């Protein structure tokens, strides 16, 4: 699988990463997670994205990576969920990194995001300074930000982060001309979350209350003509080859779906006229559509 530089971080990441949100769910069997992780590595997927809030994801990745730690780039997210400490404080970040190291069974994390940290908190400086200190201490290689909107824009311009994570998909293109372009100019890495827009085509009826609900509405409004391409392929190629995007974080618990995405992205960018039609569809239908956290 082709690798790209993650901005100026010095890290090289596969164009498709394993978004390890689903693997943390209680209904996932540990043996299946291990099989998925090994299949990912064998496919050349070298970036794994997890977070404190993804259930047992960090622990399971830590166990699955025994003996293969050096083959992967580990991305995680902190800022909350440390017993005895308020969320979005310096200690929540410092100890959050220590906890993640322990759960992931490693002595260093590669990319550590402040996970949807609000703008006022970023501006206050305490959590940013705590994250920078973990980098200086060699516990994290790259300080990163994950989120949308004003906070994302601030993060890109702040000079404090080497990489950002945000939603990029056919139904969520607003950031491409803003933060993604700016990040690229400034040498920041860009990781695209929710690249399939949560596969809204899976739902015949509006999935009220589901994470995919907003994207289901948008997909209908876009009235796409996929020109014969399967939607998973269309979405994966669009996001992975959007200028500035280093890697798409494909959220899956299925080796077959991961494999499908790798194959799709390896086929290269969509034909230029199809990419242009998808961009036009968004500009036409997407007034007021903001990046989805
Ligand atoms: N930083 C943040 O706040 C944040 C927020 C959201 C996501 N993320 C990151 O981005 C990753 C991906 O996000 P996401 O999972 O929300 O969205 P996504 O990748 O757009 O969609 C994932 C969904 O699509 C399904 N899927 C995958 N391939 C498919 C295929 N070929 N056909 C049909 N369905 C398919 C998956 O189910 P199967 O398991 O059946 O494949 C899963 O339910 C997360 O794991 C996480 O790493 C970060």
- Alpha carbon gyration radius: 18 Å
Q: Decide which structural class fits the backbone.
A: alpha/beta
User: What can be said about the biggest beta sheet?
Assistant: 8 strands, parallel, barrel
Average pLDDT figure: 98
- The residue ranges in which pLDDT falls below 50 over 5 or more consecutive positions are none
Strand content: 15-25%
Ligands bound to this protein structure: NADP nicotinamide-adenine-dinucleotide phosphate
CATH fold name, please? TIM Barrel
Strand arrangement across the biggest beta sheet = 3-4-5-6-7-8-9-10
Distance between the termini: 28 Å
CATH architecture: Alpha-Beta Barrel
Number of strands: 10
How many individual domains?
1
The proportion of residues forming helix, as a percent range, comes to 25-40%
What is the subunit organization of this protein?
single chain
Order of helices and strands: EEEHEHEHEHHEHEHEHHEHH
Number of helical regions: 11
Give the name of the CATH superfamily: NADP-dependent oxidoreductase domain
CATH C-level: Alpha Beta
């Amino acid at each position: 699988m082709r690798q790209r530089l993650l901005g100026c971080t010095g890290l090289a990441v596969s164009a498709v990463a394993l978004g390890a949100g689903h693997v943390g769910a209680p209904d996932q069997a540990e043996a299946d997670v291990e099989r998925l992780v090994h299949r990912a590595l064998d496919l050349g997927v070298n970036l794994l994205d997890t977070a404190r809030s993804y259930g047992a994801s960090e622990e399971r990745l830590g166990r699955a990576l025994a003996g293969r730690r050096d083959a992967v780039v580990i991305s995680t997210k902190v800022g909350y969920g440390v017993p005895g400490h308020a969320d979005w404080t310096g200690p929540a970040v410092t100890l959050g990194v220590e906890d993640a190291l322990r759960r992931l069974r490693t002595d260093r994390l590669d990319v550590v995001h402040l996970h949807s940290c609000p703008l006022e908190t970023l501006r206050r400086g305490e959590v940013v300074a705590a994250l920078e200190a973990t980098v200086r201490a060699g516990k994290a290689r790259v300080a990163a930000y994950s989120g949308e909107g004003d906070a994302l824009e601030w993060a890109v311009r702040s000079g404090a982060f080497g990489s950002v994570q945000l939603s990029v998909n056919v139904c969520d293109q607003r950031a491409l001309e803003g933060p993604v372009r700016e990040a690229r100019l400034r040498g920041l890495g860009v990781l695209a979350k929710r690249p399939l827009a949560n596969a809204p085509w899976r739902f015949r009826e509006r999935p009220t209350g589901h994470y995919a609900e907003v994207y289901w509405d948008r997909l209908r409004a876009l009235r796409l003509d996929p020109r014969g391409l399967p939607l998973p392929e269309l979405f994966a190629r669009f996001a992975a080859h959007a200028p500035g995007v280093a890697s798409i974080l494909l959220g899956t618990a299925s080796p077959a779906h991961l494999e499908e995405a790798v194959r799709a992205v390896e086929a290269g960018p969509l034909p230029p006229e199809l990419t242009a039609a998808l961009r036009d569809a968004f500009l036409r239908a997407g007034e007021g559509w903001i990046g989805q956290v």
